[in-house]
Design a protein that fits this description.
binds zinc ion; about 325 residues; TIM Barrel; two-stranded antiparallel sheet; alpha/beta; globular; 13 helices; eight-stranded parallel beta barrel; binds glyceraldehyde-3-phosphate; about 15% strand; binds 1,3-dihydroxyacetonephosphate
Amino acid sequence: MVNYKDIGLVNSKKLFAAAVKGGFAIPAYNFNNLEQLQAIVLGCVESDSPVILQVSKGAREYANQTLLRYMAEGAVAMAREMGSKIPIVLHLDHGNSFELCKSCIETGFSSVMLDGSHLSFDENIALTKKVVEYAHDHDVTVEGELGVLAGIEDEVSAEHSSYTKPEEVEEFVGRTGVDSLAISIGTSHGAYKFKLKPGESVPPLRFDILTEVEKRIPGFAIVLHGASSVMPKYVEIINAYGGKLDGAVGIPEEQLRKAAASAVCKINIDSDGRLAVTAKIREVLTKNPGEFDPRKYLGPARDMLKELIIHKNQNVLGSAGHGKNLG
Ligand code: G3H
Ligand code: 13P
Ligand code: ZN
């Protein structure tokens, strides 16, 4: 059993309380490899932002669970060596079983998500509650989900979204004991969040649902998944250097900023990071076809991702500058 406190990690409780009170959101960045982790840590240290390092089931299988635990410990050590106090959370994204959540807790995770959004209301409550009981015994925080996002959730697919029903949140939170709740208000996973006809613009998020949810569980930590903006500058670079991402579109940053100023206190970003990395790798390899040293293209890709993270923390989530007070 690896206790997350022994490797310098924290759970998300204090961070969410500060974020709700301060009108900002804690960034949750997904990672699978060394360069992504370096970029996240460097970007959050430089912008002095608390951070949630987020690992999906697939990422855990890709990276190896033992290596991941040491990578997280290394991330904390690296931040401290740089003189930074930023709090660092290691979080399981879209956990789909009690066993997976338990295994993550046993290998150093300080926070887990049980995504029971595809289950019936009562089944979702029962499974989430089981995870909460085990997690809280280990001082690990738990995120639950109500409502289904469109697109592909890690091994949880949904053709169409079904928005969170505000009338269900109070009972869900009360009966499960979760620490935070992911809701569906129009975001979705991946790089194709909306199918727009020519001239059409992105429909606004359902802030009316968010307001209703806030009214029923005031001050409770709300989470937004599928919150990448699919930044056009990266899509353009990818398409200019041999890629093909036609019609990729995401959530406008102003809407995310507005959400972060409300009860939304955790914003999940994966696709924007993937796009930044892919854009730079495509550009470097196209301009230098003879290059075969991975450091020569992964290094610039890492720098591009770091730049993106600083931008998100400063201009979208508002988490920049809050690291030292929470550390
Ligand atoms: O919400 C899902 C995340 O973007 C993780 O994606 O399952 O491909 O690692 P993944
Ligand atoms: P994006 O695909 O919009 O980056 O969402 C990521 C996410 O929600 C991870 O859980
Ligand atoms: Zn998600």
